[in-house]
Amino acid sequence: MAEQLAQLADDRALLGRTSTAERVSDILRSRIADGFFPPGTRLSEDSIGGALGISRNTLREAFRLLTHERLLVHELNRGVFVRVLTVDDVEDIYRTRSLVECAVVRGLDEPPYALAGLATAVEDGRRAAEEGDWKRVGTANIHFHQALVALAGSERTDEVMRSVFAELRLAFHVVDDPRRLHEPYIARNREVLQALEMGDREGAERLLAAYLSTSLERVLEVYRRRVGEDG
Fold it and tell me: What does the pLDDT average to over 20-46?
């Protein structure tokens, strides 16, 4: 934990001169999504507050915001912990993803589309796979879907899905074979991108719907086994 806190102290610069709970929650959300604080980790007010150089009240407000986003959970007389998702949580996350992501593709105007973010994520995933960095492949995959949601041009949708994707990473951190989970989606991301490059919204939506269905099955297969083992 000492090493993590030392790295967290590097995030102080992100707070600027006017430290706010929103900025702190942004930092912690990103760190949780990256696996810096794995599911089940107890978050120490003193240690994190000291690392970031913030007041206890500011940190508590950030914890409250992230608890509202379902990334943290407060346990009476025990403290604040990174949430461990249930199978129902995972299913609901994918239900939300399917509703939102497919609707974004369906609602696109006439091509061409602003696909630079998707193309960058596909290339990042390919390079990470070549280097055998499967955690980074998972990050590139999330970035692909964030870029896809951004095609809607809606800050509200981006904000909603930012929390959904952060929750999704909590599920990914439980997976014991990230290569098996993430490798198939390098090609499938490319297929969705290619359909959008050709202006084929209907084809892209079909690919995306099948993609999300298969991804849910893969995650649940592992998640049920791991949660069962831990329980």
Answer: 89
Check residue 231 and give its pLDDT: 47
Mean pLDDT of 223-230: 68
Tens digits of residue pLDDT in 54-71: 899 999 999 999 999 999
Please write down the HEC assignment for all residues of the chain: CHHHHHHHHCCHHHHCCCCCHHHHHHHHHHHHHCCCCCCCCEECHHHHHHHHCCCHHHHHHHHHHHHHCCCEEEECCCEEEECCCCHHHHHHHHHHHHHHHHHHHHCCCCCCCCCHHHHHHHHHHHHHHHCCCHHHHHHHHHHHHHHHHHCCCCHHHHHHHHHHHHHHHHHHCCCCCHHHHHCHHHHHHHHHHHHHHCCCHHHHHHHHHHHHHHHHHHHHHHHHHHHHHHC
How high is the pLDDT of residue 11?
65
